[in-house]
Amino acid sequence: FPDNHEVKLETVIIQYLSLLIENNLNYLGDENYNKWILTVPGLWDDKGKQLMKNVSNKIGMKDSEIILEQEASSLAFLYDDTINSKHLKKNKVYIVVDAGSTSVDICVNKIIDDKKKIIKQLMQPVSFRYGSNIINDKIIEVIESVCDKKTVIKMKNSNFDAWQIMLNDIELKQKEIDDSTSGEVSILTPFNNDKWNWLGMKNNNR
Question: Is the CA virtual torsion 144, 145, 149, 151 positive or negative?
């Protein structure tokens, strides 16, 4: 796409997955007999999962399943040959913790059959918002106080792409802030008939 050309998140994912399929047809065989497992970040809600499901349907992934990233990591743990097999015996419980820069994802499973790689999920996979996301939440609170909280919620529910773009911009801006920062910090917000505006926020409100 040309520089500065606005593209929907769904369009990017569709093109990426379509290219992935095209480049791997020799290995996939008959695509009608493949089961696709697509992962989404642990912090994504049901709306994000539905987005991935819609994408998979549009590009012909007839048999697809959407799972969280921590679930995929937990399953991969069973097939990792570098891990001592004594830890992967029947009735063993293991916890996978993915501690990232903005969140901590946790998945807890019990091994039912170590030979057939059958596990049981002991608790719902969870994602905790830590680190810089605490700062991001405070920035969103300021935006809500300026633009009206109902407007922010309406935008989030009606325009998933715009919401993700704003969160990404917040993430970039807060990383630039340090003790030497002075003046104003500008956050990109889509609150005027779906057109992008700039909302100036005082540094002491960050």
Answer: negative
Identify the three-state secondary structure at position 16.
Answer: helix
Alpha helices in 63-177 (DSSP H): 69-78, 132-147, 149-158, 160-176
pLDDT per residue over 6-39, tens digit each? 888 889 899 998 888 887 776 766 655 567 888 9
Residue type at position 131: G
Q: What pTM, to 2 d.p., does this model score?
A: 0.57
| Structural contact between residues 103 and 70, judged by C-beta atoms closer than 8 angstroms | no
CB 130 within 8 A of CB 97: no
Minimal CA–CA distance to 39: which of 17, 8, 7?
17
Q: How far apart, in whole angstroms, are the C-alpha atoms of residue 186 and residue 68?
A: 33
Q: How far apart are CA 135 and CA 78, in angstroms?
A: 36
Strand partners for 94: 109
How do residues 84-114 score in pLDDT, each as one tens digit? 777 788 999 999 888 876 678 899 999 999 8
Residue 40 forms beta bridges with which residues? 68
The larger pLDDT score, comparing residue 82 to residue 195, is at 82
